[in-house]
User: Fold this.
Amino acid sequence: MSRYGQYCPITRSLEVLGDRWTLLIVRDLLVGVTRFNELARGLPRLSRGLLSKRLDELQRHGIVQHVDGRYLVTEAGEELRPVVFGLAEWGARWAFGEPRPDELDPTVLMWWIRGGIDPGAFGRRRVVIHVLLPDGERRRYWLVVESADVSLCFTDPGFEVDVLVESPLGVLYQVWEGRIPLKAAQRDGLLRLSGKRELVRAFPSALQLSPVAPYVVRAGVSAGRGDPG
Assistant:
């Protein structure tokens, strides 16, 4: 923990939250991630040792509690929600734009998308979504959507594919973050959906975008590709 030697509530807050990765851990906890392995998968550049240390610090400061193998935000942690998403709103207005190559990790994106799929949009049936990223470090992923769970697979799970999503990695990232509307990406030939008609039609409803997407849309940080609907 860094200390600034100033008696001020801002500096005290930074002493608790200002270390590298801490606010991103809080971000993920606030959007519903509760397990250590889930946190690690969503933050792959953070070592597991440092993740454990940061979680211990958050527990020590009363921001997180560890209960039955889950990490849950306390009242103090929940009150960070407007702070964290205030940063999302400011960042969407003043610091967001085209993605940089070092920001495009296909596995992280697919892990996020896995958490954003609403199985209810497909009804009570198994749906297999094959995602093809022709320019990704890893090009193929499968999402197996069951009524109560969504699994991310790195090899063919052996089921018939119901929906095929084909998109450059940077485009799919920007769709997920709300910078390029899905309909606009399809219209402009940037992203292609194919497969069983009724399931392709249900896909936009099933894909719940990033928790920061509303801030990006509200800030008007679009890629200039037409109607955001």
User: Anything to note?
Assistant: DSSP finds eleven helices and seven strands in the chain.
